[in-house]
Specification:
It comes from Enterovibrio gelatinilyticus. InterPro entries: MlaB-like_STAS, MlaB_ABC_Transporter, STAS_dom, STAS_dom_sf. It holds the Pfam family STAS_2. This is STAS domain-containing protein. It is a single chain. With 107 residues, this protein is of the alpha/beta class. Helices cover 33% and strands 29% of the residues. A five-stranded mixed sheet has the order 1-2-3-4-5, with helices on one face. A hairpin with a 5-residue loop joins strand 1 and strand 2. The protein is globular and about 30 Å long.
């Protein structure tokens, strides 16, 4: 069983996603996006507590990026897991994300 996704705003203003970002957790989490979707113009999303990512998780992040772009918001991924970086590269979509490269883990 996958560990449920959690989304929280930290004291420093960044957001943190934790749990497993996979085909089991993404659909219910995304259906509740009105509850957690940030309204900040500049969103830094820390992924250091994400334990597992699959293609469904990558797709959710792509949809999040698209939703924020429509709202004229910027998304920066921080502490990107190497598993996600590989998925993004294999899908040839890594250029769609702004990445805090000083915080990439697992490389």
């Amino acid at each position: 069983m996958s560990e449920q996704l959690a989304f929280e705003k930290r004291i420093n203003g960044d957001y943190c996603l934790s749990g497993e970002l996979d085909r089991d957790t993404v659909p219910p989490f995304w259906s509740r996006r009105a509850e957690w979707l940030p309204s900040d113009s500049h969103v830094v999303l820390d992924l250091s507590l994400v334990k597992r990512v699959d293609s469904a998780g990558m797709a959710m992040l792509l949809h999040l990026q698209q939703q924020l772009n429509v709202n004229q918001q910027t998304l920066i991924l921080s502490n990107t897991p190497s598993q996600l970086k590989v998925l993004l590269q294999l899908s040839n979509v890594e250029s769609l994300f702004t990445d805090d490269t000083s915080s990439v883990r697992g490389e």
